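User: Hey, my collaborator sent me this sequence without any context and asked if I could get a structure. I don't really work with proteins. Can you help?
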Amino acid sequence: MPFAVYVLGLAVFAQGTSEFMLSGLLSSIAGDLHVSLAAAGLLTSAFAVGMVTGAPLTALAGRTWPRRRALLLFLGVFVAVHVVGALTSSYGVLLATRVVGALANAGFWAVALVTALALAGPHRRARATAVVVGGVTVACVVGVPAGALLGELWGWRAAFWAVALVSVPAAVALLVAVPGGRPDGAPQAGARSELRALARPRLLLTLLVMALVQGATFCTFSYLEPLVTRVTGFGTGWVPVVLALFGVGSFAGVTLAGRLADARRDAVIGLGMTALAAGWAALALTAGHPVAALALVLLQGALAFGTGTALITRVFHLAPDAPTMAGSFATAAFNVGAATGPWLGGLALGAGLGFRAPVWVSALLMCLALAGTAALSVSSDAVRRTLSARRRPAPER
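Assistant: No problem. I've predicted the 3D structure and written it out in structure-token form, which is a compact way to encode the shape of the chain:
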């Protein structure tokens, strides 16, 4: 695997840490800036909204730039807004930095994915995707707990400074390791051509399935703390352990999927999604048993991110003539799920359905994703039959 692909993973690690670290810093931010916890929580929502809307917009704006220039520009903006965020005493300014940082992060993600695939070559696309996505899983295991620790020791601003500082060596490495032009040497397709390619029904259905899978993942992940403390019976000291266990599983799943999905992408997706649906239901039923709960948290982390990696690879497979915009839509779909899943889980909790309810919502979302995959399979069979009929010679008269 080219060194530049791992550099992209490092940059994604820093940005993934920023996306998720606020969960451990909200109280200190609210107290320092004299706002409510709900207002501090909007900083996370603003980032998610910025990612969803920013992915296609920034990719469209920067699609004609050389990829190294685009990556450095997006990463430079990301660093700058974190410096501003660390210095400001204004909630409004901090909220604006989260939106702008999300836009930069979304643009970086879209370009990083297509750059990694181009550098790795056609036979290692899934492994390259796994390295980039692996940056997010490492952020969950290491970056987010480290940000919370820094916030506890030196205040929430220290976590913002740390994200900016970690991004600087990544920027230097990008400057050295990523080629200055288009790494695949392919001509740049027109914007209208790329957008038309994204309107293909099979691609849109894949993006919907991807959003549902991520929605299921983050629905339960967001409410693991009340689940393990009020249903499983663990003390609050176990919460970081359980979250880290999910992150370890995620990293293992991404790594394994990267090795399998190049040859058996559809099998990884089908088996992974089926196992995810069964696993969320099993966790909802056995959450009161500590050993079963811990095992399932580890397993579901692996299945969720492994399946997600294979789905990203499928997106690029279905849109070979629109790589940059395909990467941006995959990023948007990921974040639609990351924003919608916790919202649905919160609705279930607010309806008084109990602390297992978000896990049941995850199982339901996976059933919808499986239905979407079944529809995709039917449409694929129909396309193959149509092509076969066209190739068949007409009968003689």
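In plain terms: Confidence is low (pLDDT under 50) at residues 183-187. You can pass these tokens on to your collaborator as they are.
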